[in-house]
Design brief:
With 94 residues, chain A is an all-alpha fold. Chain A is built from four helices and no strands. In chain A, helix 1 packs parallel to helix 3. Chain B has two domains: 84 residues, Orthogonal Bundle (Rna Polymerase Sigma Factor, Chain: A), CATH 1.10.1740.10; 105 residues, Orthogonal Bundle (Arc Repressor Mutant, subunit A). The relative contact order of chain B is 0.10. Classes of the chains: A mainly alpha (94), B mainly alpha (212).
């Protein structure tokens, strides 16, 4: 297996069945190729950095606006069998 | 299966499937509970794709309005979260600047052709271990670089990277959300990872302490 082949399949190697014949070949190549080892390492580090970004939370104003919208939507809905009465031109966003 | 009168009064105690069925009957408390349960999930995913607080807030609204209008068509064959991801993705992709994105997509195809760098061993800072996200300190400078790199990635590639590598979703689920084949999804993931890696590589090599 050449470096180019490893490059094309290295992503699969990151998260797929590591016992597959192709992954075994990739592992064998990696064991002997510092370039590909470094490349794989930098790919993994890239992912780690993105995973380390703190998760955002819904801003208070967006939360408030969302539940205001939901309240309008649900209050306009009578019973499920009679929902066809909803006006076509009604806008429910504020 | 019918929903007991007791459970009908307490949507918070219901599992998702029962909650969805109850919401479909017009129970506004059940629908509100569904929104409460998935509000953060939808916002976080929207933010990761839109990269903008206002757009993510707008997508949050649009997504749940769509969910309300289309809930009857949700048949439960896919996971509810997958259905939500699909709606969020469609809302985000509709907002994208198509021309710029298409131009970038063409340049990303170059990552399919033996893009393997041949001088990485000149950078001994690249150890074998990738490290734990919990051990990484995201400085303002690093955050700026991560955001700038992600901004350059077309949104449909972004969806693949976020779903697979950040959210940990399967290739099959990601393919389903974007309406792509498994092979096309893998190809986009490969290009996205390689592109982001190239964007970050100078910083990582210059700041080995970031991953130590």
């Amino acid at each position: 297996m050449k470096c180019e082949d490893v490059y094309l399949h290295i992503c699969d190697h990151l998260d797929e069945d590591i016992s597959s014949p192709r992954c075994r070949m990739i592992r064998e190549h990696l064991d002997a190729c510092p370039n590909c080892q470094a490349y794989l390492s930098s790919l993994k580090k890239t992912i780690t950095l993105y995973k380390a970004i703190p998760e955002p939370s819904v801003p208070a104003h967006a939360h408030k606006e969302l539940f205001k919208t939901i309240s309008v939507l649900t209050s306009h809905r009578a019973t499920p069998v009679k929902r066809k009465a909803r006006s076509k031109g009604t806008t429910l966003r504020h | 299966m019918s929903i007991s009168p007791v459970n009908r009064r307490v949507p918070r105690l219901l599992a998702d499937d029962a909650l969805i069925e109850q919401a479909k009957t017009g129970d506004h408390r059940a629908f509100t509970e569904l929104v409460r349960r998935y509000e953060e999930t939808v916002y976080r995913f929207s933010f990761k794709i839109c990269r903008d607080q206002d757009k993510a807030s707008e997508t949050l609204q649009d997504t749940f309005v769509n969910v309300f209008r289309k809930l009857d068509s949700f048949d439960g064959k896919a996971k509810f979260s997958t259905w939500l991801y699909t709606i969020v993705t469609n809302n985000c992709l509709m907002k994208r600047r198509r021309r710029k994105s298409d131009e970038m997509e063409e340049s990303l195809e170059a990552y399919d052709h033996a893009h393997l760098p041949h001088d990485d061993t000149q950078h001994p800072v690249l150890a074998t271990s990738a490290g734990d996200p919990a051990d990484v300190v995201i400085t303002k400078e690093l955050r700026g670089i991560l955001d700038a790199a992600m901004e350059k990635l077309p949104e449909d590639y972004r969806v693949v990277f976020v779903m697979r590598d950040i959210e940990g979703r399967s290739t099959e689920e990601t393919a389903g959300v974007l309406g792509l084949s498994i092979e096309a999804t893998k190809s986009r993931l490969r290009r996205a990872r390689a592109f982001l890696r190239d964007q970050l590589h100078p910083y990582i090599t210059a700041h080995p302490e970031v991953m130590s």
